[in-house]
UniProtKB/TrEMBL annotation:
Top-level EC class: transferase
Source lineage: Bacteria, Bacillati, Actinomycetota, Actinomycetes, Micrococcales
Binding of [4Fe-4S] cluster, residues: C132, C136, C139
Cofactor binding note: Binds 1 [4Fe-4S] cluster. The cluster is coordinated with 3 cysteines and an exchangeable S-adenosyl-L-methionine.
UniProt similarity note: Belongs to the radical SAM superfamily. RlmN family.
Job description of the protein: Specifically methylates position 2 of adenine 2503 in 23S rRNA and position 2 of adenine 37 in tRNAs.
EC identifiers of the protein: 2.1.1.192
Protein name: Probable dual-specificity RNA methyltransferase RlmN
Active site, renumbered: E112, C366
Cofactor(s) listed in the protein's UniProt record: [4Fe-4S] cluster
Chain residues that bind S-adenosyl-L-methionine: G187, E188, S221, S244, L245, H246, N323
Gene (name only): rlmN
Radical SAM core domain sequence ranges: 118-360
SMART domains for this protein: Elp3
Keyword line: 4Fe-4S, Cytoplasm, Disulfide bond, Iron, Iron-sulfur, Metal-binding, Methyltransferase, rRNA processing, S-adenosyl-L-methionine, Transferase, tRNA processing
Source organism of the structure: Cellulomonas edaphi
């Protein structure tokens, strides 16, 4: 273990003890946006103008809203676009194509997000909570404990700002569109279910009411909150579900991922398979490979057997070399052991791809986000 164990916290604060973020335009449905605009004495069509500026032009700056009268734009932006995130620090790697953002929220809470630009796509990893209450022992975020849930607008603002920088050509490689969003930053997304689903709906809503992304390019991860996984299957939005498993046996998984004491391996896998059955979307199994802890060949065989027991073609496995975190005695598997683990899974017919670890040198890779202020 790493230091003093953090208590598993399955509480669901609506906003947390620090208070409720100011209501933002993004927190409202399209109908509520019209009501908010008319409530400020403006014409209803101003709501569509504001949505176009925010979701299409990626701006909440009143100086850019030249199709609105100045008096109107100043009032509307002051009331409907309160500042929620302040960029405290930006760190880069991979020639500037990997960018980690540290955000200060309105109440001083801190979160991070990571932008990763590849040749054929650009992916943003976003946070849904400040900290995390699920206490996974190898994860820097999990060792922070939970500060509070993020609001829908606080989550979407991470996306808008990254998309704006990308569209403006501020990321090496020239102007481009943000193609993928993954809820794999700080926090357990399904523990903040209402906000992440409102975010997903905003991401996939066509312009001008949302960002117009494909649901297939949005990934929601979970360590296995089974009731919420089953609820997600019934939403009718075919996002990709990623289950962070990390061990196929209950004895070890309960040590690594304490939520396993509430919903065990088989319950989590059953819920993941149910998601596939309902949506037709192949589920990703995330598995951090930890040297001499969970990387044994027999565990690869057990994982393959458990996945195949639920059918063929429903799952894809992503082993992830463990990313180092401060004070941890654990490290990534030996490359030969990693190769054997992958070979065993493939021998069971499980499609398997080693996950990229971009951003590890700036503590921006999986399991490393801790919102540290110091360089």
């Amino acid at each position: 273990m790493t230091g003093t164990p953090v208590r598993l916290d399955l509480s669901s604060p609506s906003r947390g003890p620090r208070g409720k973020p100011p209501q933002h335009f993004v927190d409202l449905t399209p109908e509520e946006r019209v009501a908010a605009v008319t409530g400020l004495g403006e014409k209803a069509f101003r709501a569509k103008q504001l949505a176009t500026h925010y979701f299409t032009h990626l701006s909440s700056d009143p100086s850019t809203m030249t199709d609105l009268p100045k008096a109107s734009r100043d009032v509307l932006t002051e009331k409907l676009f309160p500042p929620l995130l302040t960029k405290a620090r930006t760190m880069t790697a991979d020639g500037g194509t990997t960018v980690k953002y540290l955000w200060h929220l309105f109440d001083g809470a801190k979160v991070e997000s990571v932008l990763m630009r590849y040749a054929s796509r650009t992916t943003l990893c976003i946070s849904s909570q400040a900290g995390c209450g699920l206490a996974c022992s190898f994860c820097a975020t999990g060792q922070m404990g939970l500060t509070r849930n993020l609001s829908t607008a606080e989550i979407v603002e991470q996306v808008r700002e990254a998309a704006r920088e990308l569209a403006a050509g501020e990321i090496p490689g020239g102007p481009a569109r943000l193609s993928n969003v993954v809820f794999m930053g700080m926090g357990e997304p399904l523990a903040n279910y209402k906000s992440i689903m409102a975010t997903v709906r905003t991401l996939v809503a066509p312009a001008p009411d949302g960002l117009g992304m494909s649901a297939r390019n949005v990934t929601v991860s979970t360590v296995g909150m089974v009731p919420a996984m089953r609820k997600l299957a019934d939403e009718g939005i075919p996002v990709t579900l990623a289950l962070s498993l990390h061990a196929p046996d209950d004895e070890l998984r309960s040590e690594l991922v304490p939520v396993n004491t509430r919903w065990d391996v088989d319950e989590a896998l059953d819920a993941a398979h149910h998601y596939f059955e309902v949506t037709g979307r192949r589920v990703s199994i995330e598995y951090a490979l930890i040297r001499d802890i969970n990387d044994h060949a027999w565990r690869a065989d057990l994982l393959g057997e458990k996945l195949n027991a639920r059918g063929k073609g429903w799952v894809h496995c992503n082993p992830i070399p463990l990313n180092p975190t401060p004070g941890s005695k654990w490290t990534a598997s030996d490359p030969r052991v990693e190769a054997e683990f992958v070979a065993r899974l493939r021998a069971h017919g499980i499609p398997t791809t080693i996950r990229d670890t971009r951003g590890s040198e700036i503590d921006g890779a999986c399991g490393q986000l801790a919102a540290e202020e110091d360089e």
